[in-house]
Design brief:
- By secondary structure, this protein is α+β, with helices and mostly antiparallel strands.
- The protein has one domain (about 10-155).
- About 40% of the residues lie in helices and about 15% in strands.
- It has helices at about 15-45, 50-60, 75-90, and strands spanning about 10, 110-115, 115-120, 125, 135, 150-155.
- The strands form three sheets. It has a two-stranded antiparallel ribbon.
- Strand 3 and strand 4 form a beta hairpin.
- The longest helix has about 30 residues, at about 15-45.
- The protein is globular and about 55 Å long.
Length: about 160
């Protein structure tokens, strides 16, 4: 059984900068990959696999104009590709609408898998951040130190932050 817990985080200034940069990079990867998928479908009538998008991400990171993609953890970027693949699967199974481009004005998020975060004794550390991310746990009766999460999604709602 999968469970999700939501809590409020209080990043320091350096973490806010890193998270904003990560959200922007996730958005760039999502939008460029979606544009490439659409272009390929319209020109070749071929779909795009996750492996092909992963190779495209590697090429994007080597582009000098997109060198900033290397400043953030690669895991949220790869997770964006996995989320996009799942979105297309849901679309083709007629469970969802066609995936849309991301806007900087909408909800921003980045998902970290076990390779990119560590939670120990109630302290959360994200990849490429120097200090632990402070959060407030509001689930009475559940000790966060006893949890073993497989992923952590950090999100900023529209209008929050810079």
């Amino acid at each position: 059984m999968r469970s999700a817990y939501r809590c409020r985080a209080y990043p320091d200034e350096a973490q806010q900068v890193m998270l904003s940069r990560t959200f922007g990079c996730v958005r760039v990867v999502w939008n460029r990959t979606l544009a490439a998928r659409r272009a390929r479908w319209h020109t070749e009538r071929k779909g795009t696999s996750y492996a092909e998008t992963d190779r495209a991400l590697t090429a994007l990171k080597k582009d000098p104009d997109l060198a900033f993609l290397n400043e953030v953890s690669a895991v949220p970027l790869q997770q964006a590709l996995r989320h996009q693949q799942a979105a297309f699967t849901a679309f083709f199974e007629k469970r969802a609408r066609y995936p849309r481009f991301k806007s900087r004005l909408s909800r921003q998020s980045a998902t970290y898998t076990r390779a990119a975060f560590r939670i120990k004794h109630g302290v959360l550390r994200l990849a490429k951040t120097a200090t632990p991310l402070r959060y407030i746990w509001t689930w009475p009766g559940i000790d966060p130190a006893s949890l073993d999460p497989t992923s952590v999604t950090v999100a900023r709602d529209p209008g929050a932050g810079s």
